[in-house]
Design brief:
The complex is a heterodimer of chains A (90) and B (164). By secondary structure, chain A is an all-alpha fold. Chain A has two helices and one strand; from the N terminus they run αβα. The termini of chain A are far apart. Chain B has one domain. Helices cover 32% and strands 24% of the residues of chain B. Chain B is built from five helices and five strands; from the N terminus they run ααββαβββαα. A five-stranded antiparallel beta sheet of chain B has the order 1-2-5-4-3. Classes of the chains: A mainly alpha (90), B alpha+beta (164).
Amino acid sequence: MTETEKKGTTADLLLRRLDTELQMRDELRRNYRKMSRRLDLRVVCAAVAVAALCVAVALALPRPKYTTDAPSKGQQSEIVSRTYNMMEQL
Amino acid sequence: MIRRWAIALAIVAVGLLAAAWVGTPRTVPFDECSTLYRHYYGTEGVEVAFIRGLPIDDSVAVDVTQIVATDTTAWRRLAEDFGMPKKPAGVTGKGKAVAMILTDKEQPAKHSGLAEGECDLTLLSDEMRCITVFHINNKEEMDHILYRELYKMQNPSARKPLVQ
C-alpha cells in the first residue's frame, strides 16, 4: 500500500467516525427535546392539578349564603356577629 | 420557553378563578328563603335577613332568619307576632337577657307541643329589638346552638372566630 492510499484510508476512517459522532449527537439532541417536552407537560399537569385543588378547597370551605338583597360585607358581618352575640347571651 | 408560558398561564388561571369565586355574590334566591323572611320582606320598620348555612361550630351549620325592628312600634308588633314572654312585674329597664322560645315553623306565635324537627329555635332580644330564628332540623343542631359555649370548652380548637 502506497503512502497516498494509507492516508486515504485514514481520512476515510476519520470521516466515518465523524459521521457516527454526528449521528450520536443528533440522537442525543432529539432525546433531550423529547424529555424536555415531557417535562413541560408534567409541569402543566401539575399546575392544573394545583389550580383545581385550590378551587376545590375554596369551594369546600363553609361560607354562608345571604338573602336576595345581598347585603354588603359590612352588613353581613353585622348580622352574623349579632347572631353570635345573642347565642352567647343565652 | 413553553414551560414558562405554561406556568404563567396556570398562575393567571388560578388568579382568575379565585377572583371569580370571591366576586360572585353568594345569594339565596327569594323563593328559597325561609317563609319568615318572605313574610317580613318589605315590611315597614323591619329589616329582615336570611342566612343559609351559618356555621354554629366546626360540625354544624343552620339556616337563620334575623328580623330587626327599626322602631318601637314595629318591635311591639313583632313581639306580639312571636308571642314574646312578658317581663315579670316590677322588672324595669331593657336588660341584656335573651329570651328563647321554640316556635312553630309556619306559625311563630305557636309555642308549645312541638315535636323535634317541627320547630325552630327563636331568640328574642328586647335590647337589640332583634329576633333570630334558627331553622332547626334535628336535636343535634339544637344542642349545638344551646351548648355552643360548652362545645367550645370541650374542643378548644373551635374557639377560633367563626365570623369570616
